[in-house]
Amino acid sequence: AKTHHHTWDISYQYKSLDCFEKLAVTVNGESPGPTIHAARGDTVVVTVRNKLETENTAIHWHGIRQIGTPWADGVSGVTQCPILPGETFTYRFVVDRAGTYLYHAHYGMQRVAGLNGMIVVTEPAGAAVEPFTYDGEHTVLLGDWWHKSVYEQATGLSSNPFVFVTEPQSLLINGRGTAFNCSQLGAPTGSACNASSSCALPPAAALFTFVPGKTYLVRIGSLASLSSLSFEIEGHSMTVVEADGHYVKPFVVRNLFVYSGETYSVLVKADQDPARNYWAASHIVGRDTTKTPIGKAVVSYSSGANGLTTPPPTAPPAGPVWNDTAIRVAQSRAIVAHPAHVIPAPARPDRTLLLLNKQARVDGHLKWAINGVSLAFPSTPFLVSMKRGLTGAYDPRPPPDTYTAAGADGVNATVRSAAYRLGLGSVVDVVLQNAEMLSGGNRSETHPWHLHGHDFWVLAHGDGEFDPAADGGRLVLDGRDGQDRPIMKNTVPLHPHGWTAIRFRADNPGVWLFHCHLEAHVYMGMGVVFEEGVDKVGRLPASIMGCGRSKGLRH
Ligand code: C2O
Ligand code: CU
Q1: pTM score over 0.80
Q2: Where are the domains of the chain?
Q3: Which of 47, 344, 446, 483 could form a disulfide with 286 if both were Cys (CB 3.0 to 4.6 A apart)?
Q4: DSSP sequence for 494-552
């Protein structure tokens, strides 16, 4: 196995990702940052130098389980102190499973500002275990983009009255947005708005090249901050073969729904007319966003006489109906493990957490709360305070395992820095229960939930309110019907008005965040923290300490 060393300078730069110039947090001057390539079993070492001048940072390696290295998970307030301006911090971890993963800032809402990228882990040479073949590869990182700064967004979310971030101005594909319409700004056209028709085409838009007749593995991930997305390549069907680093029983789609924090690999055959170009497009689903232009990139057949920058002769695809939840739930249910790559799930849990996802008011401020508790990130990282017994650094009372009928109806919550304590090695079920928005109108949102430090089995997506008596049986895997092949993932959507059940083994000593991957939601408290076997964690590196009550522990 190899060791891959990277040195990253994190800095603000002027960028025109969607042709509108604004500051972005970059890795070595780029947003998205470079794709990290490694083979299964390799070690990745990233030396991060914070050159933001006035802002902290921390970087999370999304989907990497950090087995034995919980201090490298990169979550400010959970696994480390933030990296101060001018400081250097080194992440060192093993990538122990092939697949498509992500990285991004995990400090406040900093991810929104552009610090993100992909991690591609391949099978080591000679280990031909992939249950499919292909001729070439492309990576597609989906995102959304605002012209308001992170500070303005975060201040609005924590103000009373509440100021929403609004819908994004653009959807990005590999960090490129199509021409933002300057006239929508309602302000005099200034030098900051450079939109022109050429903005819609490469190099302003991302470009993917196909050789006719070849089959491509397209690795797709989303680090959108708010948007649930649908991705498609005009005229081409896609066969889904991998999700979050696990092989899928293949199924064919025209458009793939991708929730923030998820990754998929699809096979695409270059089987269309090579004499023209095609659109690759992303659309928002689940929110009425007719104001956000669709995300566009260009697919070009290299053999064609057409130039790479010739626009496709067609209008971009219209995308699916934004508010059809049923087709999205159906696609979520279609994702099951490849028959030759099933990792059997334990038949039953040792403990079940029933987590109600609800908006709440705390002193008049709008929050998201889980069983009445809205998460506040403590100034001392949980990993340090729990391992070193720093009392007073967090709330020692764990949040409730379930909610009451009164809790389901109430609007009140408390803001706390508390963690669930899980038995090391125990099997835990989590049933995520959705609810309606406080604003009423029978509205309910999509929440993609991401678990750090583990993969989980996706047991079920249900409608309405979970009933332990009636629905509990659906979660028992007795192996009798041959259908008990839940896929393992690290991110899964909780659909509007529904529930989602997952199961995992709490076998990775450390302290791990489990949260809604929408940046505004986790900022408003939509997450929980799991501790398991913290006493078994090895010696903590001094570099993660130095803040809050860990001040004196640095040396
Ligand atoms: Cu990609 Cu805690 O998230
Ligand atoms: Cu959410």
Answers
A1: yes
A2: 1-128, 130-340, 344-553
A3: 446
A4: E-TTEEEEEEEE--S-EEEEEEES-HHHHHTT-EEEEEE-GGGS-PPPGGG--SGGGGG
Q: Please, which residues have CB within 8 angstroms of residue 483's CB and are 6 or more apart in sequence? A: none
Q: List the structure tokens of 364.
A: 């008049």
Amino acid at 185: L
Query: pLDDT tens across 392-437, in order?
Result: 999 999 999 999 877 777 788 999 999 999 999 999 999 999 999 8
Average pLDDT, the chain: 92
Q: Quick check: CB of 261 below 6 Å from ligand 1?
A: yes
Query: Ligand 1 centroid to 227 CA: how many Å?
Result: 15
363 has pLDDT over 50: yes
Return d(Cα 145, Cα 170) in angstroms, integer. Answer: 5
pLDDT of residue 280: 94
The pair of structure tokens assigned to 348 is 């039953």
Is 104 close to ligand 1, i.e. is its CB under 6 Å away? yes
> Do you know the residue count of the chain?
555
Fold of 344-553: Immunoglobulin-like (2.60.40)
Give residue 293's pLDDT band: very low, low, confident or very high (50, 70, 90): confident
- Give Cα separations from 458 to 222, 335, 447, 504 (angstroms): 19, 9, 15, 9
* One CATH from 3.60.15.10, 3.30.10.20, 2.60.40.420, 3.40.50.2300 for 1-128: 2.60.40.420
| ipTM computed for the complex | 0.98
Q: Tell me which DSSP letter residue 270 carries.
A: -
If one looks up domain 130-340 in CATH, what number appears?
2.60.40.420
The percent of residues in the chain predicted with pLDDT above 90, rounded, is 79
Which atom of ligand 1 lies closest to the CA of 260? 1
- Strand 228-233: give its sheet, edge to edge: 207-210, 295-301, 278-285, 228-233, 255-258
State the average pLDDT over residues 230-250: 97
Answer whether 338 contacts ligand 1 (Cβ < 6 A): no
Q: Do domains 1-128 and 344-553 have the same CATH topology?
A: yes
Amino acid found at 391: T
Cβ 60 under 6 angstroms from ligand 1: yes
The closest of 104, 89, 106, 116 to 30, measured between CA atoms, is: 116
Q: How many CA atoms lie within 13 A of 485 on its CB side?
A: 16
**C-beta 219 within 6 A of ligand 1:** no
499 Cα to the center of ligand 2, angstroms: 13
Ligand nearest to the CA of 453: 1
Indicate the DSSP class of residue 406: H
